[in-house]
Give the backbone structure.
Amino acid sequence: MMREQADCRSPSACPTVSPTDLQSISPVLQRMVIIAEDSRFRSHVGIDPAEVADALGVDGAHGFWSAIRAAWRHRDRLRGASTITQQLAKNLYLSSSRSPIRKLKEAATALGLELVLSKDRILELYLNVAEWGPGIWGIDAASRAYFGVPASRLSAEQAAELAATLPHPRTSNPTFRPDRMLGRRNLILARYRGVDVYIPPEEETDTIPVPAVLLPPVDSLQIDSLAPVDSTQDSLTARRTDTTDAQRTTADSSRDSLP
């Protein structure tokens, strides 16, 4: 699936990430990310033929090379279906372009990564270079920013929330548009607990404007409990309040102008 991604090709575009060893990252978080992003991560070779086939609407039962040929024939429809290894390849080496050629480069790079790196190393790198929110890079920074704990101490619910954040980290995370994130979190938790549920891919694009977010230092940011946001009732109440205030201001101005 496609991911929101900042353009990090210029040195100043993205902040420096402090890497965290996989041993210092909660095993439950690792499991949640694999469930949400790439359920066959431990068994594929960098590309998941079944996911490619699903994305293209073709039969993937004939194996890897059949899926590759189908991907080229239907390259105009090729979106998403990215494994964790492909996402790492894109984050490290490629642009965020959605062209079929870029997707083929991503697949080739993923195959190369799988040849030289272990699965644990690939997962470790992915968790450390992924964006988890506006200006939040790396899993330990995200864990401290959203929940005030290091990545080694995440609970199952917190880990599921972070995994649910990955598709659209800037517009669907524990502090912005939580309804969509919480729905995805619940599906991830259900799968983690053994329920056979389908976790759908997120939208390929998100046209909702992203507000500028200035984050304080992660050590001082506590976001354990938040008031509900994005509810229709809250929006209606805010509009009624704004309208009432405007009417009062107009009335006051009219009285002041009377002789």
In short: The beta strands are 131-133, 136-137. The first strand starts at residue 131 and ends at 133. DSSP finds ten helices and two strands in the chain. Confidence is low (pLDDT under 50) at residues 1-7, 203-244.
